[in-house]
Design a protein that fits this description.
alpha/beta; 29% helix; binds beta-D-galactopyranuronic acid
Length: 425
Amino acid sequence: MMKRTLLIYIALIATASMSGQNKNAPVNYDESKVPTFEVPNPLICKDGRRIETAKQWEKMRRPELLRMFGELEYGVTPQNTGIRVKHELVASNPNAMGGLATQKQVLFHFIGKNGRTLQALLLLYIPNFTKGRVPVIVSYNFHGNQTTTLQEDVIFSPSKELMKSAGSEKWVRGEQASRWSYELALQRGYAVATMNYHDIYPDSPDLRKYGIATLLPDYKEDSREADEWGAIGIWAWGYSRMADYLEKDKRIDKNRMVVLGHSRLGKTALWAGVQDERFRVVISNNSGCGGAALSKRVFGENIARITANFPHWFCPAFNIYSENEAALPFDQHELLALVAPRHVYVASAEDDQWADPRGEYLSAYYTGPVYQLYNMQGLPSDTQPPVHQPQHFDVGYHIREGKHDVTAYDWQCYLDFCDKVFSRQ
Ligand code: GTR
């Protein structure tokens, strides 16, 4: 039986890699055209065994699902990369943001066993008004640390030159500041750490040769194994490296680390948070297809489109499900459920139909049975709440008006949720 499954699997991979992906696959925005499908039951193992206790979940089903998401979607995270990391404090300011925060800028030197090196720059703000250890929100930025604030002392992220030459024009200081509610978070006693995701893997199919993958001994420039990690997997690994640094900082409370990501980085935050249990709260902001949204609804962005437009994000095996979501042996609610008994939060935006807000909600809702194993409370109803009515149980959700973005409203909701979670510890 095992052998047969394996053979079918290999045959499928071969077919998928031959057929190529479809950039023009139709996109559905009509709720009445969502295919009928059965939501996979997270509590039934592949061999049919039914999970009844948290212990069984952790022993049998959780590892099984984790393996499937690795082998079939994001790629398997190497257990031993052999990469050494050195941290160099390159700048600091005890009076940043008008005295509100202490700022630190830490250069990460990644050193591969093959002698190759790579650098990434962390920007950290720690609130000054409170003493002792504080919770931290860890979140990648899209266009460099310098875009997240107008503060003049923030150094440009190292990948700036590479990405500019690759055509990205958004590297201007403060350009993304509306997405970073630093003051709000700091005033509420949270530290915030950010890094540019291009430092870890420059986000383009032809720029893999400048990223972390090249530091691995078995790196091949032109091909990837069916289950080899893609960019999302590598960025997720980077989130864990940020956690390594932060948990050693004397001002950071390693039991209150939060990972937050928007869009492709929301997909990344989920995959990072699932694998790295040091993140107590895992927040997906508008992560959509391959993130929080249920794939089997095939609403908005779908697997054919995402694997065609971003062939480097997932592992090659994920292509099997292009225009074939029905064949997926899991769905994204089972990814979210892997965060339990920690806390997962999903946020949508009303006008972000590409990310399928309803599919994102349902996915968060369908984690319920897993949270129940821990006597924790998931979302109470399969009806999506109206805009601006956040649902903060052990699982969190909100939908706000407006477009695909991260806003001060989103930050406020996240901070409220984290306060609630951490006050119960
Ligand atoms: C879109 C992509 C989405 C989402 C978004 C983003 O082009 O289709 O899956 O990740 O980019 O990251 O901003």
